[in-house]
Design goal:
single chain; 331 residues; alpha+beta; Aminopeptidase; Aminopeptidase i, Domain 2; 2 domains; 3-stranded antiparallel sheet; 14 strands
Amino acid sequence: MAEKEASARKFTKKLMDFLDKSVNAFFAVENMKEILQAEGFSPLYEGDDWKLERGGKYFVTRNGSALIAFHLPEKPFQGFQIIASHSDSPVFKIKTDPEMEVEQAYIQLNVEKYGGMICAPWLDRPLSVAGRVLIRTKKGVASKLVNLDRDLLLIPNLAIHMNREVNDGYSFNAQKDMLPLFSTMEGKGKFKEIIAEAISVKEEDILDWDLFLYNRQKACVFGACEEFIGSGRLDDLQCAFSSLQGLLAAKPKESVAMHCVFDNEEVGSGTKQGADSPFLKEVLHRILYAFRLEEVDYYKALQNSFLISADNAHAVHPSHPDKADPVNRPY
């Protein structure tokens, strides 16, 4: 029992470290890439020819926010064993030219909702900014990841004296109630400057960005017996991380072991890096083509394959047990 508890604690610590570092989809995929390469997986690129070897371990990314990794068996494979999860979570996205002046006293940032979130947990706590920045270089357009990694923003709630209905089902307006406070007027024009300094480029070389807010609170364990995990982005990085660990431990014999992490699940998956794209299908085809197999072999392999859609489900809520299924009740 002690050995099992020690193993569980070790896994939990690794999961929490991953959650803390993976502040959005771009960083989740970047962190998975680092883990995979440390475990001997080789990167592939969609624009290159793929030369695969039996027993080989590989991964490919798309858009920097989706990833497919796989481990080939030593002998000819019959199918694919796949676990699929997603890298994105509900969040606030920072718009282009985001600084908004308020009464010549404050600077707020203009944001929009991404996915379906509960707004209230974003209020009255330190937030920061992370994501991808597109920049101009001598060789063309390039992208850089940025994580400001400091307490930079806060979305202040309106005091109850000015909003007596706040505890009576108040409906938050994202364009009014959820704009983060960035600075006094002294900081006017500094947002782009801060981003440029963080990635060591000139402001004028920043072309665009995919930047998101994130909660600065770290993942933790809590409860009398430390039996619970509290963290942002558990949906669905908990499944993505567990799936990754499963792939690392896999010893495939007759099937290709695959770990897939798609982006944009929170907004319908209909992007080129989403689960509704041909990303997975194209990777499966390219694996077969690398071994000179034909189209008919693809359809035969599908019949010998299995896919788990790994997404977080809702446990029975201690304050609202009536909201759960009457029979299927996860705790």
